[in-house]
């Protein structure tokens, strides 16, 4: 089949798939032959993704490159990725050029090492939905500029702000004049708790919150009283927190939050420095929120068995997925927890008593290096959650376990013979 006999629409669709993989594909395609060039240039959807990294090309080449994409994409919405790790003035000139088309921006990902380009961001972008800003240097003026820029984005649904919070930054710098009513997904990295809470207070419809590295170096608070105002996020469904090392900042966050519709909570820590899990802050947050939590993950957070029990009791009626990962000498899954999770009948003075099983809807139970119990306790819990056993037990309604994945520390294995035999027989054993 000759190229000239292939329908134009089919060729354009093939080219569009190539552009998804490589944003430079339209440039390459337009240089193959005259026929391909006509197709590539006449299809504006091929030119809607603009990616620039300073230092790779000269300024005049970069500006020409950007102008080419802007012109050939016609009036279609565009996605922009700009990377400037050298503090080059080129990034400012590039944004100045792109700013003339800010009404077409749908996605903006900006990585820069200096404050030069921030003022050029102050352009209305009515259809911009996805925003990501990463910088290593940010003073009070730069922070204020970013805050003002966010006010110009009425359609923003996803926001990621990745920069080290400086103690000198005033809290008033981030308080917008109106709420971010369209924002659904927020990611913050290296922020302090107080400005983070101030930001959350304006995200009235937030559904997903990701926090990487809460910092204890607080800027001076501006509250007139000693207690910050509580933050209620009625639509929040998922919280993910990753701490380089646990500290009291997580308490500041959970002591102020209320999330009545929260479904998932993940708390992870990276470094092995010992810092105890934040007392009762998380459990109090769950009780205060009275949320229908279905999934919880604690990874290397030094949580004790009693603290874990408090958290599980606060969401016992709705929890379906339980995951604990530890690689330190803190073992939070013991006899007390397993006994409460075991579906069955308690007997007092010979008379059967209907018991309330902890987390009756539990469907997945994953424990990695956090188990320390008497031999048989784990097997008794897992056996009690089998469909055949649940049907005959005099307890509240329980959902059978769909998945159980257990990894046991080597030093405990010789004392858990019957548990390990049961795990191997039922496919739950993880070496």
Helical segment tally? Answer: 15
Average pLDDT metric:
80
- As a percent range, the share of strand residues is 15-25%
Largest sheet: spatial strand order: 1-2-3-4-5-6-7-9-11-12-13-16-17-18
Helix/sheet category: alpha/beta
Oligomerization = single chain
What general outline do the C-alpha atoms trace? elongated
What is the topology?
Blueprint: H1 8-21, H2 25-29, H3 34-42, E1 49-53, H4 59-72, E2 78-84, H5 90-99, E3 105-112, E4 130-135, H6 140-150, E5 158-162, E6 185-189, H7 193-200, E7 208-212, E8 231-232, E9 238-243, H8 249-256, E10 257-258, E11 264-269, H9 281-289, E12 295-299, H10 305-314, E13 321-325, H11 335-341, E14 346-348, E15 351-353, E16 364-368, H12 377-384, H13 387-392, E17 403-407, H14 410-413, H15 417-425, E18 429-430
Parallel strand pairs: 1-2, 2-3, 3-4, 4-5, 5-6, 6-7, 7-9, 8-10, 9-11, 11-12, 12-13, 13-16, 16-17, 17-18
Antiparallel strand pairs: 14-15
Helix pairs in contact: 4-5, 7-8, 8-9, 9-10, 11-12, 12-15
3D structure, described in words:
The chain is of the alpha/beta class and 431 residues long. Among the domains are: 1-47; 333-431, no CATH class. The chain contains 15 helices and 18 strands. The strands form 3 sheets. A 14-stranded parallel sheet has the order 1-2-3-4-5-6-7-9-11-12-13-16-17-18. The chain has a two-stranded parallel ribbon with strand order 8-10. The protein has a two-stranded antiparallel sheet with strand order 14-15. Strand 14 (346-348) and strand 15 (351-353) form a beta hairpin. The protein is elongated, with a radius of gyration of 27 Å. The N and C termini lie far apart (57 Å). The model is unreliable at 219-226 and 347-352 (pLDDT under 50). This is F-box domain-containing protein. Residues 1-50 form the F-box domain.
């Amino acid at each position: 089949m000759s190229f000239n006999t292939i329908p134009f629409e089919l060729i354009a669709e093939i080219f569009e798939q190539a552009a998804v993989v490589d944003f430079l594909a339209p440039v390459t395609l337009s240089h193959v032959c005259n026929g391909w060039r006509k197709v590539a240039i006449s299809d504006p959807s091929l030119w809607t993704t603009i990616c620039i990294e300073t230092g790779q090309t000269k300024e005049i080449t970069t500006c020409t490159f950007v102008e080419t994409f802007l012109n050939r994409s016609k009036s279609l919405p565009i996605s922009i990725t700009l990377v400037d790790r050298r503090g080059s003035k080129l990034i400012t000139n590039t944004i100045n050029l792109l700013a003339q088309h800010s009404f077409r921006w749908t996605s903006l990902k900006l990585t820069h090492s200096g404050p030069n380009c921030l003022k050029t961001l102050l352009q209305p972008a009515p259809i911009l939905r996805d925003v990501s800003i990463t910088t290593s240097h940010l003073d009070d003026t730069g922070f204020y500029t970013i805050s003002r820029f966010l006010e110009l984005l009425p359609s923003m649904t996803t926001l990621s702000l990745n920069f080290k919070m400086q103690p000198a930054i005033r809290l008033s710098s981030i308080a917008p004049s109106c709420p971010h009513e369209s924002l659904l997904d927020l990611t913050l990295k290296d922020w302090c708790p107080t400005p983070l809470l101030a930001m959350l207070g304006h995200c009235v419809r937030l559904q997903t919150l990701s926090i990487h590295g809460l910092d204890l170096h607080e800027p001076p608070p501006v509250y007139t009283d000693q207690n910050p105002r509580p933050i209620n996020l009625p639509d929040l469904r998922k919280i993910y927190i990753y701490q380089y090392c646990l500290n009291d900042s997580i308490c500041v966050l959970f002591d102020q939050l209320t999330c009545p519709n929260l479904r998932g909570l993940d708390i992870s820590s990276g470094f092995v420095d010992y810092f105890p899990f934040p007392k009762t802050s998380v459990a109090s947050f769950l009780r205060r929120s009275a949320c229908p939590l279905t999934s919880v993950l604690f990874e290397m957070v030094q949580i004790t068995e009693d603290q874990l029990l408090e958290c599980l009791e606060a969401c016992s009626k709705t929890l379906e997925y339980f995951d604990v990962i530890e690689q330190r000498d803190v073992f939070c899954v013991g006899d007390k927890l397993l006994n409460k999770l075991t579906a069955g009948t308690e007997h007092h003075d010979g008379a059967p008593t209907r018991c309330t099983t902890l987390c009756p809807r539990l469907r997945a139970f994953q424990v990695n290096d956090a188990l320390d119990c008497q031999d048989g306790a784990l097997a008794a819990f897992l056996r009690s959650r089998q469909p055949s056993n649940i049907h005959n037990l005099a307890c509240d309604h329980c959902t059978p376990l769909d998945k159980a994945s257990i990894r046991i520390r080597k030093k405990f294995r010789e004392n858990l013979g019957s548990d390990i035999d049961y795990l191997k027989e039922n496919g739950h054993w993880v070496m």
